[in-house]
Amino acid sequence: MTEVLRAEDVHLVREGRPILREVSLTVRPGEHWALLGANGAGKSSLLGLLGALIHPTRGTVDVLGRRLGRVDVRELRSYVGHVDPRHPLGEPLRVRDVVLTGLTNSIAMLPRWRPTPQQRDRADHLIDTLGLAGHREARWPTLSHGQRGRALIARALMPQPRLLLLDEPATGLDLPGRERLIEALGALREAHPRLATVLVTHHLEELPPHTGHALLLREGRTLARGPAAEVLTGDLVGACFGLPLALERHGGRWSVRTERRADTVRA
């Protein structure tokens, strides 16, 4: 398969209000996409379409070669890792058990389900890869936001998906937590070179260095799409957020600052 995702001319309408309009996106194995836009631009809605959580009002979405509307989405979702930092866990599960629930697509461990030794080994391997080796037995309430985020990425990877969707994974993280998350995503890329990812954010500083492509959304429409070096420019990102911006990149990481307008300087 040459494509993991293909969305063509997607429209999404909710309660008579257009959320997405004429959005297209193609993601191939091993590609790492950033999906950026201001609050309300439609980022999470597009991610929901790509993860087979919702259906488009018009247009087509193919996920792993299967078209939404023609496939059992419950089965399809088992091949897509979806990471939401607002994971509604109410029980004080251990980290390993949280990761193992990725196999059952459940919030808690199912009563009569027991993981195999191989599945437990895989959970431990992913926990190690995400930098949580010392927290396998830790209870969920004792974890920091950053540790929870990395545990949820390990959980999403348990079914060995070919696609990983990350919805603002750095939400609520302090600077050390954000940097450890970005480091963990880099280790994940090295361990799973064919895995494709789409990361939603509105902060360029949260993008891993290996981000190769980007899509900018503004008011539900595609403003720009393509290689990150061509899309993540001051002019385009500034137009996306409605601000005069200057972007710089060092060591693969982006930084952004607001440029002062000439009229503001004169005043």
Give an overview of the whole structure.
Helix content is 30%, strand content 28%. It has nine helices and twelve strands. It has helices at 43-50, 73-77, 95-100, 117-129, 145-157, 175-191, 228-231, 234-241, 262-266; strands spanning 5-14, 17-27, 32-36, 58-63, 66-67, 80-83, 163-167, 196-201, 213-218, 221-227, 245-250, 253-258. The strands form three sheets. Strands 6-7-8-3-9-10 form a six-stranded mixed β-sheet, with helices on both faces. A hairpin with a 2-residue loop joins strand 4 (58-63) and strand 5.
The level 1 CATH classification of the largest domain is Alpha Beta
What is the count of distinct domains? 2
Number of strands: 12
The radius of gyration is: 19 Å
Which topology of the largest domain does CATH recognise?
Rossmann fold
The CATH superfamily label of the largest domain reads: P-loop containing nucleotide triphosphate hydrolases
Order of helices and strands: EEEHEEHEHHHEHEEEHHEEH
Largest sheet: 6 strands, mixed
- From the N-terminal CA to the C-terminal CA, the straight-line distance is 58 Å
The total of helices stands at 9
Helix content: 25-40%
Structural class assignment: alpha/beta
Mean pLDDT, to the nearest integer, reads 87
- What's the arrangement of strands in the largest beta sheet? 6-7-8-3-9-10
Which spans have pLDDT < 50 for at least 5 consecutive residues?
A: none
Tertiary shape? globular
At CATH level 2, the architecture of the largest domain is 3-Layer(aba) Sandwich
Strand content: 25-35%
